[in-house]
Amino acid sequence: MCKAPRAGRTKTRLAAHIGVSAAAELSACFLRDVAAAIEAVPIELGRTGYGVYAPAGTEAELRDVFPAGFGLRLQAGEEFGSVLLGAVRDLLAAGHDGVLLVNGDSPTLPPVYLASAIGMLREPGDRMVLGPAADGGYYLIGLKLPHAHLFEGIAWGTASVAQTTRQRAAEIGLAVAELPEWYDVDDAETLAWLRAEFAGNPGRFRAGGRAAATRALLAKHGEAVP
Questions:
Q1: Which residues contact 115 (CB under 8 A, 6 or more apart)?
Q2: Domain CATH code at residue 207
Q3: Does the bond joining 55 to the residue before it have cis omega, within 30 degrees of 0?
Q4: Is the pTM of this model over 0.90?
Q5: How many domains does the chain have?
Q6: Boundaries of domain holding 78
Q7: pLDDT digits over 13-59, tens only?
Q8: Is the sign of the CA dihedral 74, 70, 131, 43 positive or negative?
């Protein structure tokens, strides 16, 4: 799930700390690294990568960011829940047996979490797979069916998103399988977590993905990155 990494239009909270151009550069690197995590999932598991994006007209920019094998799916809208639900519906309609929606803000997301999510989702019976984020949201939601109720009445961008989504699942009797917690890089605090992870002092989050593009960008700007 992503927006085209345009200066002034993406990563606005980070931009307040590091500037709009640097935030756009980081955003592009985050997308490259999340895509690399998806591509690191064994192909034998039957995975296909997509960039589900907005706004319209940014396809060429995203083709430069994503691997050649990735598809692009426009999913624009004012209400984020409708965007997520539309993505689930479209990808299921394309013939996939399940959908994992992954945010584009977690460059060190471990590929093993994605592989685990595929296995969880393919267990018998209907279910939701949830990857809770440190800020109270989620970095991943996986579904076999487009359950609209999961995306209704959610206070997006708040610390209650994951818990409210669990409640929505309980209300419709949908089983929930959970992945380990991970984090989004959205502001100065979480950027500091990322730098600490790169420096070998990860705190709460360990054994993250390599995030080669993000590491290279920080090194380019003079930060010591192992």
A1: 41, 42, 45
A2: 3.90.550.10
A3: yes
A4: yes
A5: 1
A6: 2-220
A7: 888 888 999 999 999 999 999 999 999 999 999 999 999 998 899 99
A8: positive
